[in-house]
Input
Amino acid sequence: MGIITVRVPDEIKKKLEKYNVNVSETVRRLLSEYLSELEMRDLAERLEALRKRLSDKINPELIADLVRQDRESY
Output
């Protein structure tokens, strides 16, 4: 496991101690949540870029017709 050192103002440190905050666990959880959010944003951007590239090549009416034909074949 990697080590990250953070300096915080004394006032914040005292308040964290007052409320018995497990700083290590809290920071690990928040960093994990933030990383998940960044990954979701990245994925959304990549999907949007793919959608733009494919929108010129795919005819929505053709897709609808193909789906309809497939459903009718059952």
